Amino acid sequence: MRLDVEDLRLFLCVADAGSITAGARQAHLALSSASGRLSAIEADAGTALLHRHARGISLTEAGATLAHHARLILQQRSQLREELQSFADGTRGTLHLYANTAALTTFLPERLGPWLAERPRLRVELLERTSADIVSAIAAGHAEAGIVSDAADAGTLHRQPVADDPLVVLLPASHHLAAARELTFADVLGEAFVALGDDNALQTHINEYAGAAGRPLNVRIRMKTFDGLCALVGHGVGIGIVPQVVARQHRRKTRTVAVPLGDAWARRRLCVCFAAWSALSPSMRSLLQHLGATPTEP
Q1: Is the N or the C terminus of the chain less surrounded, counting Cβ atoms within 10 Å?
Q2: Domain CATH number, residue 56
Q3: Which long-range contacts link 291-298 to residues 24+ away (Cβ below 8 Å)?
Q4: How many CA atoms lie within 13 A of 35 on its CB side?
Q5: 163-203 per-position pLDDT tens digit
Q6: Is the same domain home to 32 and 112?
Q7: Contact criterion met (CB below 8 Å) for 43 and 49
């Protein structure tokens, strides 16, 4: 059968009204037009769908079957429209957000909660990468947006600061450098380190600067989490480099001291990064604004 949505809607109007005249009026069609379409529907079905009486119509068994399926089709069409609209307005689907280590561990957990709670049908997949890798992915069109350090060169991409995120040197309280007001990376390169895993984006970033200085880190042990790193530093196993907010969270429990790292690359801010505001999905635009971004285009 070659029925379209308007045919189904007309047939239901007539069936519910019990009259072709009344049904045509509900469907906003002229009587002649409605009668012609009903005849075409019956011809296409190859069987009578309506009993026509002097006072109106009643459905044949075939007509009742068509009415039943027509209701289901129109209901499903309405549900489909609503579901697709939820994708279009950003309240449903899967959002892929790239972020560096600091953003994933210290910035996003608190910020994401309220926003996600208001969107129960939306999922967010967080992808940890170095800031440089995130910038490259956005520039190549492989990622919509990400959260990066402002130490990374973003080229022509838009970058908006949303939080301070300086790195500090974490030291045991008894360490000979614990009283320093500020340290440079060169000051500590000869020390034994407690590091994060090589697959960690922040650790990769630190390793790159050590390699550039020609003095690879003297790593005694690698830990999976900041918790583990801070605990071992507190026990005097070595020193570490962590975001300032992490050091503050652990200083009392681990009896550690945080000294600012004075290198320019360590005085970081977290920034949202994207190519063009108008090219972002509605859900991504909503999230970035929630995190503190400002639309760059009308």
Answers
A1: C
A2: 1.10.10.10
A3: 291/111, 291/147, 291/162, 292/160, 292/162, 292/163, 293/160, 293/162, 294/160, 296/158
A4: 8
A5: 998 999 999 999 999 999 999 999 999 999 999 998 887 89
A6: no
A7: no
